[in-house]
Amino acid sequence: xxxxxxxxxxxxxxxDPDKLSKLALEIIENQENTILVxxxxxxxxxxxxxxxxxxxxxxxxxxxxxLSIDMGFESINLSTAEAANYHQLNANWHKDPFDKMLIWxxxxxxxxxxxxxENVAKYSSIGLKVVW
Length: 132
Prior knowledge:
By secondary structure, the protein is of the alpha/beta class. Helix content is 44%, strand content 14%. It is built from 7 helices and 5 strands. It has helices at 7-15, 22-29, 39-50, 64-70, 80-84, 97-109, 118-121; strands at residues 2-5, 34-38, 74-76, 112-114, 129-131. It has a 5-stranded parallel sheet, with helices on both faces. The protein is globular, with a radius of gyration of 14 Å. The two termini are 15 Å apart.
């Protein structure tokens, strides 16, 4: 199966895997699954780091791309279609624009999002598949 990591899930994979749920860890470690990381997550990490909003415990935002590749994850970009039709995301349970774009990517690509965020889980009513 194919899964997209929420940004906090990516951070925990690299910095603190003990924060991952048993199911999330099983999915991520299963070599039969494809684990995707969006360029949006790298942007979010870099921005929030520069604003002092996240502590990466000595890991630079610049390192996350390589570290995610080293873990066997695949990077994806935001497509022009996803950006252009983002306005169709009518649900608004989340204020974080990064999370909302990850939600939209997962919905449009029909893939599951690995996220602990309870607000993200509310988007299941519009077709988002969330696992934790």
